Amino acid sequence: MQAYSNRSLFEIARENFKTLQKHCKDLLTEGYWEKPEEVLKQSVYDVLDIYVQAVLIQYAVFSKHFMREDIEFILSTVEKNHFELDPERCIDDTVVAQVERMLASPPILLQLCDLRDQEKGTRSAETFFETMINIVLAMAYLNSSKDQYVIKFIQEYYNKIHVFISNRLNHDYVLDEKYVFRKICSEMFRTGVHIESMKTSHQETIVNGLYANVSEKDKEQSIEENNQQDIKEYEQESKQQIETIEENEEFTGNAEEKKTEESIQQAIDEQKEAKKKERLEELLEELRDLVGLESVKEEVNSLINLIKVRKMRERFQMPVMDMSYHMVFTGNPGTGKTTVARIIAEIYKELGLLSKGNLIETDRAGLVAGYVGQTAIKVTEVVEKALGGVLFIDEAYSLTNNTCGNDFGNEAIDTLVKLMEDHRDDLVVIVAGYKKEMETFLKANTGLISRFNKFIEFKDYSVEELLAILNGMAKKSSMELEEDAQHYIKKQLSKMTKAARNRFGNARGIRNVFEKILTSQANRLVTYEKPTLELLTQIVYEDVVEAI
Known about the structure:
By secondary structure, this protein is mainly alpha-helical. The protein has helices at about 5-30, 35-40, 45-60, 70-75, 95-105, 110-120, 125-140, 150-160, 175-185, 200-210, 215-250, 255-290, 295-315, 335-350, 365, 375-385, 410-420, 435-445, 445-450, 465-475, 485-495, 500-505, 505-525, 535, 540-545, and strands spanning about 325-330, 360, 390-395, 430-435, 455-460, 480, 540. Helix 17 (about 410-420) links the parallel strand 3 (about 390-395) and strand 4 (about 430-435). Helix 1 runs parallel beside helix 4 and helix 2 (about 35-40) runs antiparallel to helix 12.
């Protein structure tokens, strides 16, 4: 009993092709196709048409699929007959050579899908790959038989394209009989069409294919022997194809094709660079929008400019001095140290200094263990999580406070210094704490002084700045403080002694005040039978009196 008729396989291929068209629509509407279109002078849909048709032609040649149904399958799957295929004739050698040269170039659609994945956290590149495999498998199962070369072709296709896809497709993929079986029995083989009605007997027919007369005991051995024979035949065919490609390199049109290929890659690189610049400007704007911290912003901007010039010198192969990007943040709690550290982590990523731009925050408790030998393990685990980004150690001076009679804090510092050196190309460490305590901390280990040479001081917020932070919190919650309420808060903040201000905690303290204000407002509003929108958005004097 056959699992799929030729008609259903044609429909499956067409549905999968529509999925690829949806990916192309995303690339088009989100601006990813703008640069390549300038170079290629083709729509993204035409490029998809040509690419899918080329892969299927290559598979037809690879697996000796030259029947009428194979050509009809190709033509029914795509929109246009770009290679002028004719079901009544075999595929022309000129077309084969053209396809080989074209598929030797980087797959631009997969590259753009990957770029989109990196920027938006999607998985379109992986889906593109899996959908292409669905179409190839549909062609392999024409006439109720599985082509013996299909797995080898899929493996070769995977080997060619996986290097252009970040993080998703990796060498953990096992492209074997089980992979094919799971794929054709999954609903995603039909791209959204349920196949729950497929019977077990159908599945067995598909999986057994060429092994219908082989017992279960000998099936695995038969597959392995068959695969070894396929590999020998494929190696010989590959050698002949390479010789053909080398001869075709002499074609007059080859230079123009190579130029186009380089132009496409340049367009993609320019698009990536433009996206990085756009994101960098967004981060700098976020930094500029922070309340106060003028000296911090100035220091960070100077550091960014220094890095940019260093990159310029590297491009011109000019000598550059070694730089340490690790930093010391000093200041009282609540002065924005963690927020700035997060922004710096992302800025470093866009400048090419870090691969991920993530921020891992920790303290003494996250680094120091209570038993001998465990601290080094703990520090290593935290550092590994931070690789590609910034490790932010708050109250780092506590690592040298040997209040428990052990030396585990110093063990943490020693381990950290070694790991900073081991991963100096993809890890930045920022240590934070009170100014005097941090000076003592850095003197505790000679390795620390040499690695931390950038100091940024975070000063306490003024009364006006704290009030601006409070107004910003209210605005984000679609609320507004009445003038009387603002005057009261300003008066109370101004009356605080220095010791009281230190206990207050700067931005953390004002956040606590805002939460208390919301509670007071809620207690007031519930007394109204039907509070209006205006009442819900107003914070009045009565709401703030009990909050500070």
